[in-house]
Design goal:
11 helices; 321 residues; TIM Barrel; alpha/beta
Amino acid sequence: MPAYDFADHLRERGLALRRGPVTTLQVNVGLRCDLACHHCHVEAGPKRREALDGRGAERVLELLERNRGVELLDLTGGAPELNPHFRRLVAGARRLGRRVIDRCNLTVLHLEGQEDTAAFLAAEGAEIVASLPCYGPENVEAQRGRGVFARSIEALRTLNALGYGQPGSPLVLHLVYNPLGDALPPPQTELEARYRSELRDRFGISFHSLLTITNMPIRRFARSLAREGRLEAYQALLVNHFNAETLPSLMCRHLVSVDHEGRLFDCDFNLALGLPLPGAPTLWDVDDLSALAGREIALGTHCFGCTAGHGSSCGGALVSR
């Protein structure tokens, strides 16, 4: 496979990428999940047991209290709800006046022991970013497993009944689309309109917006592509669709990602690859996150995934063209 050096790619075009102010603290609270999705870049699954402990959770809240410029606590996994300190993090961050995002796979909401999780999130005013890679069962189940689509629809109906995703509701519900395989997402606005009509007409479901995210050629997805002889072509696709207009909005410029051991990374993809934030600090090494502004970002071939086409981040597409 040819070597694609993202840093060289930027230098050749007179471009640079450095950190700005940190506004989001994203915490991967663990890798346990009730699903084992085909595209999962952290390789989460039912047998994983890695988890942020109570000491780590307390330190996350301490950092939020110290750093008023951090507006958002973004909780991911695995299924973050399965971490025993999940509710402590949500409630603690909300008491500090921070926005909280729960990156939810939907199916977790109806597991034994999670029956009141949706109501808890609604009571706390947490935002939900829910994965639903298609508005029909075939693609969802090819990517996530048999029966997942029906359980996801059931969970969305539960959330709608609590007020999530309803017009004018403060309970924010965003859905996430990612392609079934080795293709770039279609334009986000156009796909959102299709999702909205299909889910409304077929299931009576409403949501606030759709976020499109490119599949990263790392870990589980990369191995799948390699087995099928498509990894090199997919990487070339990403390189050939590099869009410099995405650079100012890349999540790595304003986000710090934390793993279950408290190590800091520029993004969740670097976390998955073990590429720590330069200097390799941990939660306990940094009190003032504003000191990270201006630092270099750890770059790799996978960075072409965030900068291809309309761009991709935890918040969806980065540019409209």
